[in-house]
Amino acid sequence: MEEYLFFHTRFSAAPAFIFEREQKFTYLSWQPKYSFEIVVDQIRTPFNVGSILRLIDNFGLKRLVHSTSWLQLNHPQLRKAARGCEHWIPVVYESDLPAYLAQTTLPIIGLENDEETVSINDWEVPAACVLVLGNDSYGITSAIRLHCDQTVSIPMSGFKRSMNVHHALAIVCQKIVASCPKSSD
């Protein structure tokens, strides 16, 4: 087990801890590279939440905000997908997402797939924002959508005009990384 931890923490871009040969753990705090906060609206599967946490780590985003009262960071599916990221990525529970979004001063961008959206290809990425992800089946709820300053979509060619939420987030994250300088937060 120790060799496994040593190997993976040596090669991780943002490890939760550094495993030293003397078998001491030095814990590090999360230092995001980009000022993008991910808000999930009714994401129901722990696996998707774990995958989103892993993407937040992979791309150096700020944190995850959710309103799912039953969400447990120790759920086996979440842990399997997150691969340890649940230990260092900040996760915030907000019981009233519309009220939370109403008080933010950052632009609120919804990732949605309908006629009223801007294509990700034409999206002007802000330096910082709150990025809202909706349910795989139903998208972003109307109460949350009212707070979105803009919605962005990913062009698709197939008959199924949707994709898994964490796949969509990966595409948006690549656009963010290609468009924005790293923050100094």
Automatic annotation (TrEMBL):
Keyword Glycosyltransferase: no
GO molecular function term, any single one: methyltransferase activity
UniProt keyword annotations, A-Z: Methyltransferase, Transferase
Keyword Transferase: yes
Naturally occurring in which organism (per UniProt): candidate division CSSED10-310 bacterium
Pfam family for this entry, one: SpoU_methylase
Top-rank taxon, per record: Bacteria
Protein name according to UniProt: TrmH family RNA methyltransferase
GO BP terms in the entry: methylation
Ranges for domain tRNA/rRNA methyltransferase SpoU type: 36-173
